Amino acid sequence: MKADIYQRVTQQIIAAIEGGAERYQMPWHCGTGVGAPANAITGRAYRGINTLLLWAEASRVGYSSGRWATYRQWAENGGKILKGERSTAVMLWKPLAARPQADDVEDAQPGRLLVRAFHLFNADQVEGYQREPVPDLPDGSRIERAETFFRSQPASIWQGSDAAFYDPATDMVSMPPFSSFRSPEAFYSVLAHELTHWTGAERHLNRDLSGRFGSDAYAMEELIAELAAAFTVAHLGLACEPRIDHAPYMASWLRVLGGDPRAIVTAAGRAQAAADYLVELACGADAGKRHQTPVSLRMEQVG
């Protein structure tokens, strides 16, 4: 049963990747209209692989809402599932020796956690439920939130490079000038991607994939960075845009996912851990004291 769940999840993500390959549109390239998926009743955000699954389904069907709940939750709150609507399966992990249940535990360890599917319906599939109005966040405030978030990161970030990359030798993120990006969202998305690589360093999360993915470790690190960037910018209320320069990795991703049903769950778990790490750093930093200039203007010279 467990293997079937992993296989179904993997096939759903593979189909989403293949379906968007010609447009470089991956299931994690979400717009601000959907945002980070969360439970409509409890407000709790879905995480890791479940975020990816719900984004993929929202993109496939065209849902405009990022709010989801179980059949029972909708019914208990006055909602009625529209006739003919089908649920979306996501994953739940439960500790074998403990109660209560634990939602969205990543990188489940065999023998310690029990995984099973549970089913959600999107708010677009429901009638009779009184949705709470969500105030619009002005674009200026949204971008300022991103500036504050990235300004709070303790990483060394140098702008003026010809390309975006993380250099492990100097432990520094290099970025092209802000003005060279087609939109602020594109800049923040790429910066989140490179900062994810920074989180993988030994003194941070020590993310070594060589034992699990061998020769495909580099491609899988790129997949983790893609997912973590999407999780991070969704946390900031921004869109994650397609990147044509990642097209060469698609074949490697599909090959690894096709041969290992657990690979996408592992990648999403590592990506969630990286995004959480960046969020925790931003929450714990005194941004006003750390950096006085915007990240889009800051330039740190290499010593």
Automatic annotation (TrEMBL):
Pfam families: ArdcN, MPTase-PolyVal. It comes from the Bacteria. Residues 4-106 form the N-terminal domain. It comes from Novosphingobium kalidii. This is Zincin-like metallopeptidase domain-containing protein. InterPro entries: Antirestriction_ArdC, ArdC_N, MPTase-PolyVal. Residues 144-269 form the Polyvalent protein metallopeptidase domain.
